[in-house]
From TrEMBL, chain A:
This is 3-isopropylmalate dehydratase small subunit. It comes from the Bacteria. Pfam families: Aconitase_C. Catalyzes the isomerization between 2-isopropylmalate and 3-isopropylmalate, via the formation of 2-isopropylmaleate. The keyword Glycosyltransferase does not apply.
Automatic annotation (TrEMBL), chain B:
Its EC number is 4.2.1.33. Pathway: Amino-acid biosynthesis; L-leucine biosynthesis; L-leucine from 3-methyl-2-oxobutanoate: step 2/4. It comes from Pullulanibacillus camelliae. The gene is leuC. Catalyzes the isomerization between 2-isopropylmalate and 3-isopropylmalate, via the formation of 2-isopropylmaleate. This is 3-isopropylmalate dehydratase large subunit.
Amino acid sequence: MEAIQKHEGIVCPLDRVNVDTDQIIPKQFLKRIERQGFGQFLFYHWRFDNDGNKRADFIINQPAYEQASILVAGENFGCGSSREHAPWALLDYGFKVIIAPSFADIFYNNSTKNGILLVKLSEEEVAIVLEKAKQGKYTLQVDLETQTVTDNDGFHATFTIDSYQKKLLLNGWDEISLTMQLEDKIKAFEQKAN
Amino acid sequence: MKPKTIIEKIWERHVVHEEENKPNLLYIDLHLVHEVTSPQAFEGLRMNQRKVRRPDLTYATVDHNVPTKHRNVISDEIAKKQMSTLRQNCEEFAIPLADINHPDQGIVHVIGPQLGLTQPGKTIVCGDSHTSTHGAFGALAFGIGTSEVEHVLATQTLWQAKPKTLQVKVNGKLGLGVTAKDLILAIIAKFGVNVGTGYVMEYTGEAIRDLSMEERMTVCNMSIEAGARAGLISPDQTTYEFLKGKRYVPEGDAFFEAVQKWEEFATDEGAEYDRTIEIDAEEIEPQVTWGTNPSMGGPISAHVPNPEDYSRPADRSAIRQALEYMGLEAGTPIEAIAIDHVFIGSCTNARLSDLRAAAEVVKGRRVHENVSAIVVPGSQTVKLAAEAEGLDKIFTEAGFEWRSAGCSMCLAMNDDVLQPGERCASTSNRNFEGRQGNGARTHLVSPAMAAAAAIAGHFVDVRSFSNQEVFS
Ligand code: SF4
């Protein structure tokens, strides 16, 4: 995966709570056997009407957010199915950072493993960011090293992240090769267990 | 020694490697695989020239995509490709596979327990969030993403941060006609879809001890709907009796040794949890959801809520959006909601006892003329067992369709898809927007409640309904 240290980008406000992975990528698009190409299906039924035309009133479709790379949403983002197609779709569409008061556990792991940075801010901070982003083009700077989120207007927030996840993201490491270096330990465990 | 919960005990027994400021490296005893979340993982292995470390601890089946009507007519080319890809991958990496025409085929969370692969004290993972089902046996079982599937295939381990523990204590006894499904829906309605986030839940209390294994699976299945990756129940006599004689369970003396080992995993008297929540079984009625997440529901006697009655703005707008999607007016009695479809199936409620419960309600009656109804057994084994008892006849004579095993209309990835605006009483676990088809409206209920709704054409309290002799 690609390393992520700092990211600056336009913020798209998705003012909904409990956004589930069925919404992020509906099941009829899970049948591919590759990791790429899921961005076109992101939030499919919110983005497109039954004839496949873009819904003008859905936030992501509005011109101000076309270039957005940071998504901000309500609590419990990514709940539901374990499909990793959800982070693949978000990343493929162009989102590198997602900000919310809380995330579902499996979604959090899946995203981190694909180099998406999930930022947990308080409900109050998220409300501020949502409001500012709703006004139009709004940019945030996210710094993983210092664990801060800032804008050009004095907004400043900090976030916590597990130190191991942080290291993986900062370095873009492949976790499997790290684990394979512990093969002796895995073997020893298996011998002991039998 | 300090008393411990089953969660801590299983955890400690599976740590392969510990380091400061890092999650633990956890050994995985059983890895279940299906066609939708695995192709990219196998592809990753091939790209890096890696092998499957323990094919003998891995077991695969096809369930999400499979047709349930005409078994071998797969109209969807991409679905066909996903199934044949799994077949090739299992061959290449020597993984046992219950393929579409195999007698063991079925929903992955139904066949694990049925084969006895699921056992107390095991760590079990699968690229599917309802892996929590296996927790009913006192296993630590949780859903993982495709990158993690690849990691387990390659190393038989996972990096996991130690979870916090949440006790869900269910006091007293469930009333007559109130099922395990009603219990878990009531828990989620009361505590919300977020209560378990970051926790593993352990269900305790009298009402839980009274449940059969199949009912326990229904409860643990929906732990993920409360936000918890895993939910489990300490093993007891009920567990051991269920497992006895299952294909992958040791026999004879080895069985008794196994039971002794399993018993040690049960939570110790006086063990402490990070958090405890409680609910009284007596207060629970048959449940029906009215919204677009599993916490948006309540008793059959209730009315569709009014968003304006909620104080939090986020709740108000979520409920408003849900009612709009569901096409429901605030204040409507739940019993007055008419339905178009009934789906009895899924890893939540498609085991033999579920089908029996539904058949009992249906027997000698007719599905309402405005309703189309299907029964999809959880596995081919369940299907055969049900047919041996004549349940298929009861259903088909009443006007239900009787299908082959698969996920089917639980997530509508095969041909079993609802049309926009259609309303379904479903025994599955998710009522998310579009889950059963774009624009389709899902109400989660127990098998008995689904059966009663099929006959009545609208929701109805199965407890009063069952006694009515004549029905038009
Ligand atoms: S039945 Fe539904 S919830 Fe269960 S594994 Fe299949 S799709 Fe998932």
